[in-house]
Amino acid sequence: MAESRQNPDEILRVINREGNSKYRGHRKKTFGYDAGYIESHKRLEWIPNSESMYRESRKRRLSNIILSATDILKSIAILIAASCIGVIFDNLGLSEVNIITVYILGVLITSIATKNKIYSLISSFVSVIVFNFLFTEPRYTLLAYDSGYPVTFLVMFLAAFITGTLAARMKNHAKQSAQAAFRTKVLLDTNQLLQRAKGKDEIITVTANQLNKLLNKDVIIYPTDKGELGEPRIFKISEKSFSTDYTSENERAVAMWVLKNNKHAGATTDTLSNTKCLYLSIRVQDNVYGVAGIVIDGNPPDAFENSILLSILGESALAMENEKNAKEKEEAAILAKNEQLRANLLRAISHDLRTPLTSISGNASNLISNGDSFDEETKIQLYTDIYDDSMWLINLVENLLSVTRIEEGRLNIRITEDLMDDVITEALQHVNRKRVEHHITVEHNEEYLLAKMDAKLMVQVIINIVDNAIKYTPKGSNILIKTWKQGDKAFVSIADDGEGIPDEMKERVFDMFYSGANKVADSRRSLGLGLSLCKSIVNAHSGKIEVSDNTPHGTVFTIMLPAGEAQIHE
Would the pLDDT of 440 be above 80? Predict the structure, then answer.
């Protein structure tokens, strides 16, 4: 039988088999464990273990009369002090009533100074005897000549006993009030701490620490993942050694039973009560987020502690439920955003790709069918149109790929210190072919301006902004690119003298798929990806991009990046 009890797999098989059956008021022995069941609303609930509850109640009653050497010494010292004061009063000629009052005061002090009320009862009885011995005739004997002394002794005993009892009750009441206030504070603090906790691990840590504070016991918590117990997390109240028996296979088997059946089990219950820990599920309705094990160690929690314990576990389960819901909501929002992005891309691409593709296919068809009959000037124009449309498509695809990488968090940035002059020169070699129709000027306030950047991505930013200036300004307009350094920042501005951007459009000019009311000269609609991509790239460099008005008219885009330091090697 002992070997069967040590087999956790067998325990689980038996208790799971019996847990799936329906009993009413029937008790069975399962490898030495008491199990009681009752059917309630088609769910099985455990009958409270009345035998174990009686044992614990009896143990608490016995603890109230256990004698303490410290309390005995306190009681003797107080009685001696009261007797000395009584002798002084007697020598001063004071009446016996004053001496009796001193002894009653001694009993009162004893009830306050000691832990159990038994000491005040004993002190009341002994005070009467000592008073009789020291202050009644004949003195230093237990005899009393006066017939009224027995009544005096009785009144003295009752007065001392009642006074001591009331003081003990007030002391216990004050202690219980302090405990109730402390436990309520623990519960309120738990609520506040769980609201600030981020993630399941932090919620478990907060819960366990609050249980340590409430119960002054070691706590073991088994997180759950997809219906399975994880590795136990141990939270000790002190640096003392932690017994491995608390996390043995038998203990884990009971924790697994709690997870499977969503009920309490273990020590102080009628279910697998031979374990060392009390196991409770951390749950919201039928969703179990973990199993908490409380090391009982012969001192179970009282009814009020048990209610606070369940409240803390309930708060913890709600916090885990909210954290799970928030994560699912965030994932749903990201999925919806990605779906919206895909829809916008498809809608925009389906419209804007049609025009250049139709132009390319039409011009190519004309060259194939009628190329021999076209003069050289017509052929060059057709070739130019095909080239322009293909370059527009290439730039569009580059922007689409970059936007996709940014949205998916796959934009790899390789920061180096590069010359801004080289980046601008490289960008101007790849801008719109129609740049020859505009006057592009570059001014550098510093001969060598270094910036911390990914040069390839910044080339794309410069290309997009200069292309916009070329597209949205008339032929012959001026485009000025300036660079300078201010403090630890490197600046680049791209200014044109076109019609400018209205104030109401400036706030949205960096939004994705926003192209405003301005039209490109060839009436081709812009996807509105270029400036949005520029802002994302600059932000990824810990930089900043702004748009403002040029004087007297036009637009200025200003880019700010972290500046690099030139190193001179001699």
Answer: yes
Dump pLDDT digits (tens) for 456-494: 888 888 988 898 888 888 888 999 999 999 989 999 999
**Residue 29, H or E segment:** strand 27-30
How far apart (Å, rounded) are the C-alpha atoms in residues 277 and 218?
Answer: 10
| Maximum average pLDDT range among 61-65, 350-354, 429-433 | 429-433
pLDDT tens-place string over residues 236-258 = 887 776 778 888 888 999 999 99
pTM: 0.48
- CA-nearest of 483, 472, 468, 462 to 534 is 462
Asked if 464 and 494 touch (Cβ cutoff 8 Å), the reply is no
Joined tokens for residue 509? 């000019």
State in words which class domain 2-47+197-325 has.
alpha beta
Rounded distance between C-alpha atoms, residue 306 and residue 34, angstroms:
22
Residue 319 corresponds to which tokens in the numbers above?
């916090």
Whether the Cβ atoms of residue 203 and residue 192 lie closer than 8 Å to each other:
no
Place of tokens 């749903």: 332
Q: What radius of gyration, in Å, describes the C-alpha atoms of the chain? A: 44
Q: Are 471 and 521 in contact (CB under 8 A)?
A: yes
- The span from the CA of 224 to the CA of 288, in Å, is 8
| CATH code for the part of the protein at 416-562 | 3.30.565.10
Domain ranges of the chain: 2-47+197-325, 69-173, 354-407, 416-562
> In this structure, what token pair is assigned to residue 514?
């926003």
